[in-house]
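Q: Structure tokens for this one, please.
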Amino acid sequence: MKKIVIVLILSMFVSTHLHAKNDVSWLDGIAAIVNDDVITEGELQKKLDGIIKQLQRDGKSLPAMSLLKKQVLERMILTSLQYNLAERTGIRIDDVTLDNTIENIATQNKLTIREFHDVLTKDGIDFADFREEIRKELTLARLRQREVDNRILVTKQDVDNYLLTQKTQQGGDQEYRLQHILMALPEGVSPEQLKVSQKKAAQLVQQLREGSDFSEMAIAHSAGQKALDGGDWGWRKLGELPRVFAEIVVKMAMGDVSDLIRSPSGFHIIKLAEKRSVSTQRNVIVQRQARHILIKPDDRADMADSRVRLDRLRERIVNGEDFAEIAKIRSDDPGSAVEGGSLGWVNPGVMVPEFEEEMDKLADGEISPVFQSRFGWHIVQVLEHRDYDNTEELQQIAAQKAIKQRLVEEEYQLWLRRLRDEAFVELKI
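A: Here is the predicted structure, written as tokens:
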């Protein structure tokens, strides 16, 4: 358990730099000026040390220290630019949101907050520093959501095309694990800059094909978001890859390194590390056709009285009065009341846990006792149940998610490039 937590903590600490301007011991020189901010040499060294430990723990080969230092500094510059933009535009993470997030992290690792605090302390991580790093992570995530994610629209046609590709295109039933290197180009790149970058990228391709370690080269040279993970993109289906990659990867054998691939972001190099077949299994669930009546208490004093009122309504229904007619007149759920309390066919996991638990106990035609949820007092009746194959619905949801992720990644890379190009950055080392 401790190992799981520490991996999580270290990955978060590597992703953003620690602002330590109040610690005099760090003020031993300036590594870079970023608009109105600075990155000190001490901050850079602290970040570099953390990344080296992570790479060593993951068993990755380290590139030349000068190249790694340059790569880490560039990541810190991008983080600084994003964080400062978030601050200027009013993005703030309040303490309640922050505390809830940290509590969720602890819960996911089956720890109480006190136990989580103790684990961090034992591993030399100051809880206050960790807390502020999480605040920064949340700030950057909210900035990305506003600037990139919310601007991406996935249409029904996009989803249909994706699913058709999965069925008909060569390689559509495969998953691919790619490694990736991006040699980024600035907007408005000059012909001379383009020529130099292309030559450098071509030299990397040659070195990789001659046996150089791809992870080491990605760590040293890539401007991609996964550079410090050795350029490893993990397992992805064909439709989850950028289109320019998908057309090439189906023709590659495992271990192949691609020719240079040009995109608006720059020059890309990909390696097909692994591939595997994916079988599609049908997903069958039990649906219940149900209807309910909700009584909402007006206030705390009305809690007991509202339950009594619903008990009486239930008794009338059991004695023969029409459930639907009573629901239309007396239910406080406006959405279902007009339909006689009907909820239609209900999938597992859709309702709040208390409602789901009561519904699961009922045989067809049976009416539940009065029970409480956060919405008020309920009774529910299950009319019938059926097995339902929702495979296609799940495929559509997964397709939309995959397309959104791909488009967001592509746009985020371009947005970062614009942010970097428009900033004043002066390197001091």
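A few notes: The chain has three domains: 2-151, 170-280, 284-389. DSSP finds 15 helices and eleven strands in the chain.
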